[in-house]
# Entry
Amino acid sequence: MSENPVAIVTGGSRGVGAATAKILSERGWNVIITCSSSIEEAKLVAKICSSDISEVFAMQADVAKEKDCIATIDKAIEKWNRIDALINNAGTTKFVWDHSDLNGLDAEDFQKIYAVNVIGPFQMVQGAKQYLLKSNNPCVVNVSSIGGIKGIGSSLAYAASKGALNTMTISMARNLGPIRVNAICPGFIEGEWLQKGMGTEMYEAVKSRVQNTTPLKKTCTPESIAEVIFNLIETSELMTGELVTVDGGASLNL
# Structure
């Protein structure tokens, strides 16, 4: 068995997932990162994060597919024979910013989004549970969104899926102890994902508005979110069932 604790980070090729892999590896964790399509980027993240004190391994896996979830968990056990933390970061959306535009979405959009954002985390926890229970401090962190609390964000379907993820987090925390299960609910996160989804003009306008109107006058970065995730994993041993809003106070104005 590995002396290092072991984490799985889904959606680890960029953004919050990559930043989380980095902070974990710097602090002596072995990490498996998954991605559904950008495997070369994920392998580069793994290469950069691996060091004398920790190993990061990248693999292609789609959390919407049960067999891929099982393969990810099997790989962690094959390599290190333990799982101490699971970070369900993989997510997807369809960008329909106007939530009154009900014709911008259909049932298939909802099914695709829920498959990744809700069923994916369920399948990962389902598969990892038996191994997490062997850890001294087992932890699951679901990466959600303030959209799931406030009913805002990239689309109505996305907000609904994150609301479902939040409810599942609370139910799991109540019933899976001693595994701690929490969700982190970020606001606007600087980076490529939102920039692509919003377009440069809208992205810069929203970023500027957040920085000018929120109590802390700051936007989230992948690194700032990763720091909170790490704290939930390693230092917050009495926290479970919490939906942790991290948005510089933006949602206080909503």
